[in-house]
Amino acid sequence: GQQLNQSPQSMFIQEGEDVSMNCTSSSIFNTWLWYKQDPGEGPVLLIALYKAGELTSNGRLTAQFGITRKDSFLNISASIPSDVGIYFCAGQGGNNDMRFGAGTRLTVKP
Amino acid sequence: NAGVTQTPKFRVLKTGQSMTLLCAQDMNHEYMYWYRQDPGMGLRLIHYSVGEGTTAKGEVPDGYNVSRLKKQNFLLGLESAAPSQTSVYFCASKRAYNSPLHFGNGTRLTVT
């Protein structure tokens, strides 16, 4: 099946720093999505990417759909304490299932 | 508009017991999914459905069954619970093939 490798597993940063995380796959994806999960809740969509090479921003967040369609990255600029959480990448391939990476746990120190 | 609603929120089962988790969505979405989330492993797909009356296996389907008799509901069943099925279960739905998933808030299941 399709495997997504997400890195890093965890990050400890100072408030105000920029953050970068990425996902790679052995398979091609048609859609890349980035989600954030807060404790005790379900993941919430941050950014959706639908075309190879696409670069999309949502406030301080920027994500790109890799040109090979096998990778994506998410950047967070000027981190703030409420950015704390687990970030997941997800990919949709040619079939109907959607697979997730193992997550990046972000801790922001004030 | 409640989105995706999962019931129950918490459950404790003894090994060998059975139970059904209910997922309901009020967004008229075609696609529905069941995932389990374990520490360090992200979300793993159990089963999914691309429309009323259809179901398909995901990555980790063994020990689970599902049914989609009505478009708005997707049921996940455990016939004989095992401790390895202790996890947090998330239901999600989406409108169309390339649409993003909308998640419920999860069901925390403990099997002793």
Description:
The complex is a heterodimer of chains A (110) and B (112). Chain A has 110 residues and is an all-beta fold. Helices cover 0% and strands 55% of the residues of chain A. Chain A contains no helices and 11 strands. In chain A, strands 2, 4, 5, 9, 10 and 11 form a 6-stranded mixed β-sheet that branches. A 5-stranded antiparallel β-sheet of chain A has the order 1-3-8-7-6, with no helix packed on it. Chain B is built from no helices and 11 strands. In chain B, a hairpin with a 5-residue loop joins β7 and β8 (73-78). Chain B starts with a strand and ends with a strand. Chain A binds chain B through residues 1, 6, 9, 30-31, 33, 35, 40-45, 48, 50, 88, 90, 92, 96-103, and chain B through 4, 31, 33, 35, 40-45, 48, 50, 56, 58-59, 90, 92, 97-98, 100-106.
Approximately how much beta-strand content do the residues of chain B carry?
over 45%
* Helix/strand class of chain A: mainly beta
Shape verdict of chain B: globular
Shape of chain A: globular
β content of chain A, as a range? over 45%
The biggest beta sheet of chain B reads: 7 strands, mixed
Measured as a percent range, the helix fraction of chain A is: under 10%
Rg of chain B, Cα atoms, Å? 13 Å
| Main sheet characteristics of chain A | 6 strands, mixed
Distance between the termini of chain A: 40 Å
Q: What are the segments of chain B in which pLDDT stays under 50 over at least 5 consecutive residues?
A: none
Q: Oligomeric status of the shown chains?
A: heterodimer
User: How many alpha or pi helices of chain B?
Assistant: 0
Q: Unreliable segments of chain A (pLDDT under 50, ≥5 consecutive)?
A: none
Number of strands of chain B: 11
Mean residue pLDDT of chain B: 95
Terminal CA distance of chain B reads 36 Å
Rg of chain A over CA atoms, rounded to whole Å, is 13 Å
How many extended strands of chain A? 11
- Helical content of chain B stands at under 10%
* Coarse structural class of chain B: mainly beta
